[in-house]
Description:
The protein has about 200 residues and is of the alpha+beta class. The protein has helices at about 55-60, 65-70, 90-100, 105-125, 130-135, 140-150, 150-170, 190-200, and strands at about 35, 45-50, 75-85, 175-180, 180-185. β4 (about 175-180) and β5 form a beta hairpin.
Amino acid sequence: MRPANRLFFAAGLALSLGLAACGPKGGAVTSEDMSLGNPKADVTVIEYASASCVHCAAWDKDVWPAFKAKYVDTNQVNYVFREFITSPPQLAAAGFLLARCAGKDKYFGVLDQVFRAQDEVFRTGDMRGPLVAVAAQAGLSEDQFNKCVGDEKALNELNARVEKYSRDEQINSTPTFVVNGTKLEGEQTMAAMDAAIAAARAKK
């Protein structure tokens, strides 16, 4: 999915949430990245994805569980998730802010639920209701949800990360995967990920 043209968000995002998206090396992994698996693994897989991208949601549902079981849970891969913004930007931003507010230990579980909520959001046009329900599942009250998605500092930090990925890492669509420096754009099958990881290992 292509990125939103500009990243304009009001500080009062929560109030309007009837509201309504490197070079191929992928850049150094930093403390602001969300990651799973073995940070010392020989292979690092970076995924750039948007919480409002239907292709990212499809990969999360159809491929991620098998990929995680085979490579992440067995510590064969260092998996790094990087947030990107695509249309509708309000959903992408709110989804990521909510996942981060839930904490690192709940981040990926909340993001899974945001991806699952996409269908309802797009079908009904109601963005707030499904996200408030996701927040409740993560143990956050509606007041905490409002404060979370209305956090201007966190929103500015998210925008800065996205701008950096677009400018420095040359990311312009989602999902994009970088496997030890090799860039793969678009949804990838498990077979394609297997092949990319095998190729990365062969270069070691």
